[in-house]
Design brief:
The complex is a heterodimer of chains A (about 800) and B (about 325).
Chain A (H helix, E strand, L loop, with lengths): L1 H16 L1 E10 L10 E4 L4 E4 L5 E7 L1 E8 L3 E2 L1 E7 L3 E2 L2 E5 L22 E4 L1 H6 L9 H5 L5 E3 L7 E3 L7 E5 L2 E2 L4 E2 L4 E2 L6 E7 L13 E7 L8 E7 L2 E10 L5 E10 L1 H12 L4 E17 L4 E25 L5 E28 L2 E26 L2 E29 L2 E23 L7 E3 L4 E15 L4 E14 L2 E17 L2 E12 L1 E4 L10 E4 L7 E14 L2 E18 L16 E17 L4 E16 L8 E2 L6 E12 L2 E10 L3 E2 L4 E4 L23 E4 L6 E2 L3 E14 L2 E10 L9 E7 L2 E8 L4 E9 L1
Parallel strand pairs in A: 1-8, 1-9, 13-18
Antiparallel strand pairs in A: 1-4, 2-3, 2-5, 5-7, 6-9, 10-17, 11-12, 13-14, 15-16, 17-18, 19-20, 19-50, 20-21, 21-22, 22-23, 23-24, 24-25, 25-26, 26-27, 27-28, 27-29, 29-30, 30-31, 31-32, 32-35, 33-34, 35-36, 36-37, 37-38, 38-39, 38-40, 40-41, 41-46, 42-45, 43-44, 46-47, 47-50, 48-49
Chain B lengths: L1 H27 L2 E4 L9 E7 L6 E6 L1 E2 L14 E6 L2 E8 L5 E3 L9 E7 L6 E6 L6 E4 L3 E4 L4 E10 L7 E18 L4 E13 L2 E3 L11 E5 L7 E9 L4 H6 L5 E11 L1 H16 L18 E17 L4
Parallel strand pairs in B: 2-19
Antiparallel strand pairs in B: 2-3, 3-7, 5-6, 5-8, 6-7, 8-9, 10-12, 11-12, 12-17, 13-14, 13-16, 13-18, 15-17, 18-19
The chains are: A mainly beta (about 800), B alpha+beta (about 325).
Chain lengths: ~800, ~325
């Protein structure tokens, strides 16, 4: 009887609801590219939804006539009249609008509507339009211009979000974490903007689907490839060139591909100079390249398969060969040779296979298998060849230092949209990590020397993550995104786990103004051991272990968001606490291979709080943003600075960025960026005094050299870690672009300059010994640097 | 051929231009300028380790700016230095013939707390206090065992240190020997060398724990706490090289043996912190990417160290062998 009552109630509910679902994909009409985050609203009921990472949307509404409006930034909106009498599929193809036609171009979901805060979408077109170092547009350097996001040192692509470290950013490329994002010691990032579809930055209020890092999520989606016609674009710049090709495969256009490559040619330019300067004895150079490829295939209306791949590498090398003649005891002359090479190299390999399946119009699933590998290697070897006792002797020595990390991961994610008031996401992921925190190897055949390997201890671990979140409306004014993220980590027979609640709330104060608040806890099972502030590839990725606990944080934020006249404005205040932060102990260096990394680190905590302001305009002839951050960030370790709190090296009280792109007409545009930041905190001695001389100096005897323990050495005194502020940083970049339509496509000439007014910004500080005593010296990296670039598109 | 050359001439121009730009960029990387350093006030520097078997003396100097020639980094004379035992004045220390060196005839006792007050015109008065830890340990060691190491003759020595203290205590081991020293004079006309005996000098012996991964990491000072003691006992084998005695052999031709001293020190925590941090700072100086080290300081209104320790000294003989 109870069962019958339940069934009747269920039937009654279903009959009363009379809901049907409209679902499909939102794509670019010209390229077939998925449009992520497009807004679909039924204007009759004011109910709507947003397309997901694969452009899929699902909107469940009561039976009836819908007036569906679809909008996406940079595209002309489209309206559809749909008679919803059954579940229906409607694929929407939007037409890219000219940025000059302000009337037709709209933004995506207004900032005040979403419960999500601390999230910024950076249009790729803006990234490519901004003036940059040596003409290389760079995603991460553009992200550094956002409030709450700070750059490291001059030129570095390191990203520091709300007081977090460079390792606390989950940088995912097509769903795969990328561990080292730097080319050329951090001056360029590994992401080729020509191959990118969308960049989304989350600084706080993290949705439950994200986990594994404390401070930010930078979600980068690669283009899928034009499925309508063969297209290409490329550029020739000062130090590198790149080419991207994309198009459909097969007449049915069910398959498309994109390949994109970039390479620097510094080595080609410097090789002849080095060769000539060394009388032909030396060769050397440096280059980096990256290669992206993706293929996607539509198996059916409900199934789609994506295979993406990235390979990037930096390599610096030098080789030499010299010969010399000498006399033997028997009076004859012979020749000996010295041959050597040395180098440094690092890079990532990434692969992802993804399968989308639409189980029902309301249930979308994505299954992903990924592989990510980062490896750093520095090596040097030499061979001496000489005759001895009638034989030719080959003495070889080779030293190699290798570190890195490899991940294999599998995950499944579901999007379930039961009604316009609920958008549920859930998923499960399992990752196998293999850490190699530094192996030093020495091989030789020299008599009396032995092959040696130090630090060859690999650590393997399993990481589990699962989540559930719901974006739901409690009323027309109140919308909530709430969820739980659970993660576990198994390493050295120790299991860590963490349940992380997340919530973001939006309350509409008026039509275009909302109040937002968020709270999120995060856990991170990997640490980055880093010396100094340059994003060196020598930094070590290490896991949480039975001795070193995972990093944990919580963050609360509150703010207001408003849209007016195509401008979006947000003001947010935040407070964040981070625990189990590791750093090298006093005096320690990664160069020191005599100890395990766990013995060289100290564990502490940090906090960060601040206020962020952003005024952004994404569309129109004039676009860009103004960002300002007022913040304070500290660290505290019981074993450093005598346990006292000290400013984090990238504690930056004021951070301002003004970014603008102005399309004067269809053929000419001007872009500019101005940044200002409080100087980085560094440790500089303030005073010197004599130490205690414990040795018994005894009588001073002439003609002897005494090697005893630090007698009366000078002590360098500083009252606190990071006690000194470098000079404030500011810089203006300008760029001009001329575009012309040709028979074969479009070509552009770009001309500009980095650091236009030649500000000598601090890169690092050093103490120099001179005849007149010690001096504190500031080194700067880049004066005013002009650039040019030729780009084409067909 | 000419047509082909013309075809590539723009490429050459681009190459030239690119080269100029790259050179410009490279020159930019070496921009540097001197930065003025903010003023830092002068302060007194007190250096004093004290123990039970000797009179107490301090070395008084002053600090200087980090930049410049450090010309002001010198001894301070004519200061008033007062020593207290549990708040009772026990000595006004007098300056030695060596500038900045102040002595008293007072011999401190273990378990007592001593304080210091130093006044000097032009400087803020400085204060410091410390104790001499109780001698609550027992130490024994075996005979050194010579063996042929990878490069030269080495020795192994096993010791046991027993300390049942429940609280955290701090130790230091030092090995050293004394060597006769001579001044050498050369009479070039007569082709003769003259030697003048001038006294003895202390030489430290570097040693390492057996099993250490790198054999090159011998150190002159070895610090540890009782945290890893096994039920109050530390049993260790140390290793040292005959190379440590090389000057001893060559300059003591009349001696067949060298007496080596093993000094076991029980330190106060402040002395342990000072010694460790000073060693770390000096070891790190000049090392690429080494993290900065703050040296421990327990002088109020000034710099330096005023700290006590207790010690026991043991000896063993190293017999000279012909190579």
């Amino acid at each position: 009887m109870k069962k019958l009552t339940f069934l009747l109630l269920l039937a009654s509910f279903c009959t009363k609801a009379q809901n049907f679902t409209l679902n499909g994909y939102v794509r670019d009409s010209e390229t077939g590219e998925n449009l992520i985050g497009a807004t679909l609203i039924d204007q009759n009921s004011s109910q709507g939804t947003i397309s997901n990472t694969f452009g899929f949307y699902s909107l469940t509404l009561p039976k009836g006539l819908l007036s569906l409006k679809v909008t996406y930034v940079g595209y002309a909106p489209q309206e559809y009249i749909v008679d919803l009498t059954e579940n229906q599929q409607l694929n929407v193809n939007l037409i890219a609008g000219s940025t000059l036609e302000e009337v037709v171009v709209t933004a995506d979901e207004n900032i005040e509507q979403s419960p999500q805060m601390s999230t910024i979408d950076v249009p790729v077109a803006q990234i490519k339009a901004l003036p940059v170092l040596m003409g290389e547009s760079d995603i991460l350097k553009t992200i550094q211009l956002l409030p709450g996001v700070q750059s490291g040192t001059e030129g570095s692509s390191g990203v520091y979000v709300r007081g977090g470290g460079a390792d606390q950013n989950l940088i995912i490329f097509d769903g795969v974490p990328v561990y080292n994002v730097s080319h050329l010691f951090g001056f360029f990032s590994v992401f080729n903007s020509d191959a990118i579809n969308r960049v989304n930055v989350v600084k706080g209020g993290f949705p439950a689907r994200y986990g594994g890092r404390l401070s930010s999520v930078i979600d980068i989606s690669m283009k899928e490839g034009n499925n309508q016609e063969f297209k290409g674009e490329g550029s020739i710049g000062l130090i590198s060139s790149k080419l991207t090709l994309e198009g459909p495969i097969g007449k049915d256009k069910k398959t498309s591909f994109i390949v994109s490559g970039r390479r620097t040619y510094i080595d080609l330019l410097t090789r002849p100079i080095i060769h000539a300067a060394s009388n032909g004895e030396n060769k050397g150079g440096y280059y980096f390249y990256d290669f992206n490829a993706k293929i996607n295939h539509k198996l059916s209306e409900k199934d789609r398969l994506y295979l993406s791949f990235y390979n990037g590498r930096d390599k610096g090398f030098s080789k030499y060969k010299s010969d010399y003649r000498y006399n033997l005891e028997d009076g004859t002359t012979t020749t000996a040779y010295d041959i050597g090479d040395a180098g440094i190299g690092w890079g990532n390999n990434i692969a992802a296979l993804r399968w989308n399946h639409v189980f029902t119009p309301r249930l979308f699933a994505n299954v992903t298998g990924t592989f990510s590998k980062y490896e750093f290697k520095v090596f040097g070897g030499n061979e001496s060849i000489y005759p001895e006792d009638g034989k030719t002797i080959h003495n070889k020595e080779y030293v190699e230092y290798v570190s890195g990390i490899r991940d294999w991961s599998a995950k499944i994610d579901f999007d379930y949209l039961p009604s316009p008031r609920h958008s549920v996401k859930t998923g499960l992921a399992l990752t196998y990590h293999k850490f190699n925190p530094g192996v030093l190897g020495y091989d030789t055949n020299v008599e009396g020397e032995n092959d040696t390997i130090i630090g060859a201890t690999q650590t393997r671990s399993l990481e589990l993550a699962s989540y559930i979140e719901d974006d739901f409306s409690l009323s027309n004014n109140l919308r909530v995104n709430a969820g739980l993220h659970y993660s576990g980590f198994l390493v050295n027979n120790k299991y860590y786990n963490s349940l992380q609640p997340r919530i973001s709330v939006r309350y509409l104060l008026s039509k275009n103004l909302s109040l937002k608040g968020s709270y999120a806890t995060m856990t991170q099972y990997v640490h980055l051991l880093t010396n100094g502030s340059i994003g060196l590839p020598t930094d070590l990725w290490v896991p949480a272990t039975d001795k070193i606990a995972p990093q944990r944080s919580w963050q609360a934020a509150i703010g207001v968001a408003r849209t007016f006249n195509r401008y979006e404005m947000s003001v947010e205040g935040y407070y964040k606490e981070m625990n189990n932060q590791i750093t090298y102990d006093e005096g320690a260096s990664y160069y020191d291979q005599s100890a395990d990394w766990q013995e060289k680190v100290v564990v502490g905590q940090g906090n960060s709080y601040g206020l962020e302001f952003l005024l952004q305009k994404k569309t129109g002839r004039f676009s860009g943003w103004v960002g300002y951050t007022l913040s304070k960030t500290n660290r505290q370790y019981d074993d450093l600075n005598f346990g006292k709190r000290f400013p984090y090296k990238f504690d930056r009280r004021h951070d301002i960025s003004i970014v603008s792109v102005f399309d004067v007409n269809e053929r000419f545009s001007i872009s500019g960026t101005w940044v200002f930041g409080t100087g980085n905190a560094v440790t500089i001695p303030q005073s010197v005094y004599r130490s205690h001389d414990e040795t018994d100096p005894g009588p001073q005897a002439y003609d002897y050299y005494y090697d005893y323990d630090y007698p009366g050495s000078n002590v360098e005194y500083f009252d606190s870690r990071n006690n000194y502020r470098m000079r404030n940083y500011h810089r203006l970049d300008l760029g001009l672009t001329w575009t012309k339509e040709k028979k074969w496509g479009t070509r552009s000439w770009s001309l500009g300059a980095y650091n236009v007014y030649n500000r000598l910004n601090p890169f690092y500080m050093d103490v120099q010994e001179t005849r007149t005593g010690r001096k504190l010296v500031q080194y700067s990296l880049f004066p005013a640097l002009p650039y040019f670039k030729y780009s084409f598109k067909f | 051929m000419k047509k082909l050359q013309n075809k590539f001439s723009p490429l050459k121009k681009v190459q030239h231009f690119t080269m100029i730009m790259v050179c410009f960029a490279m020159i930019g990387c070496s921009l540097k300028e001197e930065i003025p350093v903010p003023d830092f006030p002068p302060s007194l520097v007190v250096n004093c380790f004290f123990t039970t078997d000797s009179t107490l003396s301090i070395d008084l100097s002053r600090n200087d700016y980090f930049v410049g020639l450090q010309e002001n980094l010198k001894a301070i004379s004519d200061a008033k230095v007062v020593l207290y035992d549990d708040d009772d004045e026990v000595a006004i220390m007098e300056e030695d013939t060596t500038a900045g060196l102040y002595h008293s005839n007072f011999k401190p006792l273990s378990g007592h707390k001593y304080s210091l007050k130093v006044e000097k015109e032009g400087f803020e008065t400085v204060y410091a206090s410390s104790v001499i830890p109780e001698n609550n340990f027992s130490f024994s060691m075996g005979e050194p065992e010579p063996f042929q190491g990878e490069y030269q003759k080495e020795y192994k020595l096993t010791y046991e240190l027993h300390d049942t203290g429940i609280e955290r205590v701090f130790y230091e081991l030092q090995m050293y020997y004394y060597q006769d020293l001579y001044n050498r004079y050369r009479d070039w006309e007569n082709d003769t060398t003259y030697w003048e005996y001038v006294g003895k000098r202390k030489y430290f012996v570097a040693f390492t724990e057996e099993g250490s991964e790198l054999t090159g990491s011998h150190a002159n000072q070895y610090f540890f706490t009782n945290e890893l003691f096994d039920e109050g006992l530390k049993k260790e084998t140390i290793r040292f090289s005959s190379y440590s005695f090389s000057s001893g052999w060559s300059d003591s031709p009349s001696s067949d043996t060298i007496t080596v001293y093993m000094e076991v020190r029980r330190l106060t925590e402040e002395l342990y912190n000072y010694k460790r941090s000073l060693k770390d700072q000096l070891d790190g100086n000049g090392q690429l990417f080494a993290e900065p080290v703050q040296v421990f300081n327990n002088i109020e209104n000034g710099y330096g160290i005023f700290a006590g320790y207790n010690k026991e000294v043991f000896t063993f003989e190293i017999i000279k062998e012909e190579d």
